[in-house]
Amino acid sequence: MSDSKKDKDKDPCWKNYEQVGMKEKDGNQVPNCVPKNDSSSSSKKKS
After folding, report:
1. What is the pLDDT of residues 1-47, one digit of tens each?
2. What residues are paired with 24 via a beta bridge?
3. What is the pTM of this model?
4. What is the DSSP letter of 2?
5. Residue 19 and residue 12: Cα distance in Å, rounded?
6. Where is this region: Disordered (predicted)?
7. What are the φ and ψ backbone dihedral angles of 29, each rounded to 5 degrees?
8. d(Cα 43, Cα 36) in Å, to the nearest integer?
9. Beta bridge partners of 22
10. pLDDT confidence of residue 47
11. Using an 8 Å Cβ cutoff, are 23 and 41 in contact?
12. Quick one: pLDDT at residue 39?
């Protein structure tokens, strides 16, 4: 039933996460979700 909840929300990410594009996982394109409070630093790569 979690699938119907995702359809209702229209958001592929968990609560407090946002989609910032797509990434490849196991040969499939999946949403790239990052924490909302960390989205500003997502463009900067931490090493």
Report:
1. 555 554 555 788 999 999 999 999 999 999 999 999 854 554 555 55
2. 29
3. 0.50
4. H
5. 8
6. 20-47
7. -80, 125
8. 13
9. 31
10. 52
11. no
12. 45
The vertex-47 CA angle with 43 and 26, nearest 5°, equals 70
Q: Fill in the DSSP letter of residue 45.
A: P
Positive or negative torsion for Cα 31, 37, 43, 44: negative
* pLDDT value of residue 23: 95
Sign of the CA dihedral with 31 first, then 37, 38, and 41 last: positive
Specify which residues 17 forms β-bridges with: 35
Neighbours of 31 (CB within 10 A): 15
Quick check: 3 and 19 in contact, CB under 8 A?
Answer: no
- Size (the chain), residues: 47
